[in-house]
Amino acid sequence: MPKSPDLTNQTFHRLTANSRVPKIQGKVGVFWNCDCSCGTKDIIVHSYNLRSGNTKSCGCLQRETAAKGIGLQKLWKHRKSRSIEYNTWNKMLSRCYNPEDSHFDYYGGRNIQVCAEWRNNFEKFLHDMGERAEGLSLDRINVNGNYEPGNCRWATIQEQNQNRRNSIWLEYRGEKKVLSDWAREVGILRSTIQHRLKKGWTIEEALETKPKDVPERFRDKGAN
Question: In the prediction, which pLDDT does 16 show?
Fold first, then answer.
């Protein structure tokens, strides 16, 4: 698990981290002792909540917002605080900024970031992405790129599988598809096709040859 970064003297919204708090019994993760710009001191905040913007003040910001009636109006406007989109947004932040997240190594650990517009503003994320249609989930078009407008979409499982870092693309008869799609189309196991290609078969041979018709030159190589 990556080492938690040193946040000493760094400011996050209204909170400034002063010192790391010794491990708290029964609590998981790293906590920091913070001062709020309103004057309140010694607020203990989880490192992830500081960096993700989940905790922005000692509570004064929420009270000010509520006093103006803005918080309730926004909540009523999109009614999304418990929605799939909101849950997706929260999980996206956790993958990128919470070292305790089980998927952190594949996102934050690879320096995958969430753009500033989305990181601190669910409404902006919802505005840019729109509501999620049934059967779709959040996907990055460039799997090495960040979560940001232009690089994210709501995609099917098949589209996401095709977009994996380890996807193998083959061009055959003028069409380009991932190996798993070709396997389904020609009725040959994906592993068989991949094994054949590693043994030096051409794409045509790998996709067109049924196991019983393996060419003589490959029969002793276990490329069935």
Answer: 93
pLDDT (tens digit per residue) in 46-90: 888 898 888 888 887 776 666 555 454 554 455 555 688 888 998
- Sorted by sequence, the CB contacts under 8 Å of residue 126 that are 6+ apart come out as 78, 80, 85, 89
**Cβ count within 10 A of residue 209:** 21
The whole-angstrom distance between residue 100's C-alpha and the CA centroid of its chain comes to 14
What does the alpha-carbon distance between residue 195 and residue 199 come to, in Å, rounded to a whole number?
6
The b-or-e profile of 182-196 (16+ CB within 10 A means b, else e) is: bbeeeebeeeebebb
Q: Which residue has the tokens 């609590």?
A: 27
Sequence-ordered alpha helix ranges (H) in 56-189: 60-68, 70-78, 84-97, 116-119, 122-129, 157-162, 179-186
213 confidence band (pLDDT: 50, 70, 90): low
In angstroms, rounded to a whole number, what is the distance separating the alpha carbons of residues 187 and 184? 5
Q: Give the Å distances, CA to CA, from 4 to 46, 96, 97, 99.
A: 11, 13, 10, 7
